[in-house]
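User: Can you recover a sequence for this backbone? Please restate the input before giving your answer.

Assistant: Of course. Working from this structure:
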């Protein structure tokens, strides 16, 4: 500093001297000339803020962030300089309030705020985790991503990008949801996140789909004969150990007896019975659950055939699984199925086992030597096979037929009015129906002899009689069913016993045979079905007798020439009863005469019957027929029946039975000397007052001096 001396121009006297400093310039506080600038910095980079200021030096600097003075460190440099460096910027460094205060001895200046925006590249901070889920359940993968928005997400499965759709949602978010997971969705999942400043890929998260075993081989439907063996096979694969179980109709199959392999992929059932029919499934299990195969049905052919010269007679086809009726021919057989169609097997020399194409709506069948007959539900008859004697040439206009029978070369038809029609060979008079034959309820045909059962329980025969085939036993009565073989006839009586006549083993009915409900007769043997569902055979044995061994639940029998047939109850055939023919609904019966009511019913067997009289059940009358023996006035009235099976029931119409007078004891011939006296006696029964009239040579007698009691009333 310079000093100047000023001397006043005055006299010399004593004086006061001042020393005054010399001013070089004015004092100046700091002033910000360049403000720090806001910045966008990618995380991990360095941020530099610079300020420029003027003012008397020295100038001092102090940077602050959010009002807090910064200090130099490894992260902060230049906190007290004009240039501030924030090294390796991270998100916490971001903000809007970076400032610097510039000061000197004359004052200070504060800069404007500068914003540091930290731009964060997309990154994943929480990784998705691997997981295991049961098949058909849901799975989800979650991750946490950071970064400057907007952040784009995309999930990948085994390297391929996923897209939202069926079973997939959240494929463009950090949370992926998979619903109804299947085994093909097992694998590796990753999340890729991106923004404008970078991208990141998550670690791999594996999805393990825990599944029950997978069925690789499905069992197949099968049809088999009674007594045979059937094998079901299946297979499965699994991620772990498996156990196996076969199931029938929802219940576990147990090893033992006829069953083996119930807990293996191969199930074997031997000695098949009707009870084995049903739906079978194979189940494979592991710790994750159980898988079941598709059901495989086992249908048991309900027809059993034994005997005969030819194996083809007993080789019942699988097509007979739904049989409801059977018939045996010379060397062939037929079955009527529940759908109204017919199947045949055995010798086929004349096409006898080949029903006409399209044949349907059949309600009954019959078999002859080499031909077949079918009764349709419209009451007409159709024939096929050998026609060398016109046996399949059904009479034109034949209708209202309710039952049929086939002989060797001829046919018989029972009509709804109780009359019989015949056609075909008539060499022995087998189709020459006796004049006036009526009130017939059943018919049978043999080689060349015919039988008819009347509604009074008696049997009429005509045709060939060389061996007594139609030589009906004297006094045979109370018959409810008949059968005609090659050389013999059979009758089933209402008491369950059997009577035979003619020639051959078929007539040798076992002593004591009882409780019989159905009969049939072949060339040299007889068959009887008992009420307990068992079969009895007798006569010359060509193997047919084996049908009675171990067979139960039989509902029908039929005899071929030398082979026997049995129809076993079949739960798979669900046909409700149908009254095909009730018989005559109104009948007038002479007092004392027997009345047989024998309807024809179709449907699944067995069936249950109950007969009624004037609306009240008849105790103990539960057969398929009703026999009213020696009808009396009190038995005239209204009769009807109900029939049921496991699939339905039906009740018949009322059949009105009117009792008319009947001769109980016939007058007997007498001899007398001329001029002597004679007396004729007869006994009659009937309701109300009975009136009598005696006749002589066709002319009515009148009381006079010689005749007494010619027209008296009771």
């Amino acid at each position: 500093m310079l000093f100047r001396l000023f001397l006043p121009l005055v006299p010399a006297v004593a004086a006061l001297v001042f020393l005054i400093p010399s001013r070089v310039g004015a004092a100046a506080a700091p002033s910000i000339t360049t403000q720090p600038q806001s910045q966008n910095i990618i995380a991990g980079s360095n941020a530099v803020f610079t300020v420029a200021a003027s003012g008397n030096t020295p100038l001092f600097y102090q940077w602050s962030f959010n009002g807090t003075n910064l200090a130099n460190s490894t992260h902060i440099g230049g906190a007290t300089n004009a240039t501030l460096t924030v090294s390796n910027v991270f998100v916490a460094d971001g903000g809007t309030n970076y400032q610097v205060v510039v000061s000197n001895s004359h004052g200070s200046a504060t800069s404007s705020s500068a914003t540091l925006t930290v731009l964060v590249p997309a990154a994943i901070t929480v990784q998705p985790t691997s997981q295991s889920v049961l098949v058909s359940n849901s799975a989800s993968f979650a991750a946490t991503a950071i970064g400057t928005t907007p952040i784009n997400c995309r999930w990948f499965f085994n390297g391929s990008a996923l897209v939202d759709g069926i079973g997939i949602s959240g494929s463009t978010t950090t949370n992926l949801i998979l619903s109804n997971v299947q085994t093909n969705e097992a694998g590796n999942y990753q999340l890729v996140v991106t923004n404008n400043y970078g991208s990141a890929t998550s670690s791999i998260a594996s999805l393990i789909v825990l599944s029950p075993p997978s069925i690789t081989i499905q069992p197949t439907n099968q049809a088999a004969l009674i007594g045979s063996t059937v094998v079901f096979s299946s297979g499965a694969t699994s991620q772990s150990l498996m156990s196996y179980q076969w199931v029938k109709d929802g219940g576990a199959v147990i090893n033992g007896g006829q069953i083996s392999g119930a807990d293996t992929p191969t199930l074997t059932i031997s000695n098949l019975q009707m009870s084995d029919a049903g739906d079978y499934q194979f189940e494979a299990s592991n710790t994750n659950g159980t898988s079941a195969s598709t059901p495989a049905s086992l249908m048991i052919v309900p027809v059993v055939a034994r005997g005969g010269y030819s194996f083809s007679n007993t080789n019942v086809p699988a097509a007979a699984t739904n049989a409801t009726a059977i018939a045996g021919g010379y060397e062939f057989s037929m079955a009527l199925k529940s759908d109204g169609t017919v199947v045949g097997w055995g010798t086929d020399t004349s096409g006898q086992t080949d029903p006409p194409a399209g044949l349907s709506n059949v309600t009954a069948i019959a078999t002859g030597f080499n031909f077949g007959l079918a009764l349709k539900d419209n009451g007409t008859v159709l024939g096929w096979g050998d026609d060398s004697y016109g046996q399949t040439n059904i009479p034109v206009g034949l209708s209202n037929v309710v039952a049929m029978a086939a002989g060797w070369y001829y046919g018989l038809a029972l009509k709804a009015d109780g009359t019989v029609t015949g056609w075909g060979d008539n060499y022995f008079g087998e189709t020459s129906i006796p004049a006036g034959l009526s009130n017939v309820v059943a018919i049978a045909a043999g080689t060349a002899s015919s039988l008819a059962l009347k509604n009074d329980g008696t049997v009429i025969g005509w045709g060939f009689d060389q061996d007594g085939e139609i030589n009906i036993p004297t006094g045979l009565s109370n018959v409810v069913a008949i059968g005609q073989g090659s050389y013999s006839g059979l009758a089933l009586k209402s008491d369950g016993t059997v009577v035979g006549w003619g020639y051959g083993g078929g007539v040798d009915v076992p002593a004591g045979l009882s409780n019989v409900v159905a009969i049939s007769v072949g060339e040299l043997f007889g068959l009887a079905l008992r009420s307990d569902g068992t079969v009895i055979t007798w006569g010359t044995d060509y193997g047919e007798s084996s049908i009675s061994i171990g067979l139960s639940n039989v509902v029908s029998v039929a005899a071929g020439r030398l082979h026997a047939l049995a129809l076993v109850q079949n739960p798979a055939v669900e046909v409700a009863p149908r009254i095909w023919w009730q018989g005559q609904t109104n009948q007038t019966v002479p007092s004392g005469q027997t009345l047989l009511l024998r309807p024809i019913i179709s449907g699944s067997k067995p069936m249950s019957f109950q007969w009624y009289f004037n609306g009240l059940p008849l105790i103990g009358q539960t057969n398929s027929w009703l026999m009213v023996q020696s009808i009396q006035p009190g038995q005239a009235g209204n009769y009807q029946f109900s029939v049921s099976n496991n699939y339905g029931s039906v009740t018949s119409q009322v059949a009105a039975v009117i009792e008319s007078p009947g001769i109980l004891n016939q007058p007997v011939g007498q001899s007398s000397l001329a001029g002597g006296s004679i007396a004729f006696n007869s006994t009659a029964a009937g309701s109300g007052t009975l009136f009598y009239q005696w006749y002589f040579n066709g002319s009515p007698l009148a009381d006079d001096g010689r005749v007494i009691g010619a027209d008296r009333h009771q």
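That completes the design. The first strand starts at residue 31 and ends at 34.
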